[in-house]
Each structure stands twice: as structure tokens, then as C-alpha cells.
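C-alpha cells in:
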């Protein structure tokens, strides 16, 4: 953290670490999921995972990616 004093002598604290990223591009989401961009795009069009559309941009919420991973975990019994 960085501390500074304003003109009245009050201590002001600023965060030096960025806010965690929540929305990922298709390419970033593909890297996170270990899939190709085309495979992720097909998952989105098939309705397997929700997405955010901002104009032409498609963004994927990291919480949705984590939920998709959890839903698709399979426990095998040997």
C-alpha cells in the first residue's frame, strides 16, 4: 500500500494491487479452460455456458467458467 497525506494532513491510503479480473475474452477463456477458441465458441453457442456480449465482443465470466468445470467433473469408482 502507498500512503500519502492530503493538504489537511489526513492520511490517504491507495491500493497498489489491481482488482481481480472477472471477465475474460474468448482467447483468455480458452487458455483458462485448456480448450481452443473454436471449442469455447461452440460451447457458448450450444448454451453450455453463459456469456456477456458487449457490442461484437464476447466475454466470459470467470465464475461461469468455474461453475462449468464443477458441473462437468466426473468421479469414477474403480
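Residues out:
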Amino acid at each position: 500500500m502507498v500512503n500519502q497525506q492530503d493538504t489537511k494532513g489526513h492520511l490517504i491510503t491507495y491500493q497498489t494491487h489491481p482488482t481481480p479480473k472477472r471477465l475474460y475474452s474468448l482467447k483468455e477463456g480458452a487458455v483458462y479452460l485448456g480448450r481452443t477458441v473454436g471449442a469455447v465458441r461452440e460451447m457458448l453457442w450450444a448454451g453450455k455456458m453463459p456469456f456477456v456480449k458487449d457490442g461484437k465482443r464476447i466475454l466470459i465470466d470467470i465464475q461461469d467458467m468455474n461453475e462449468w468445470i464443477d458441473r462437468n467433473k466426473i468421479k469414477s469408482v474403480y
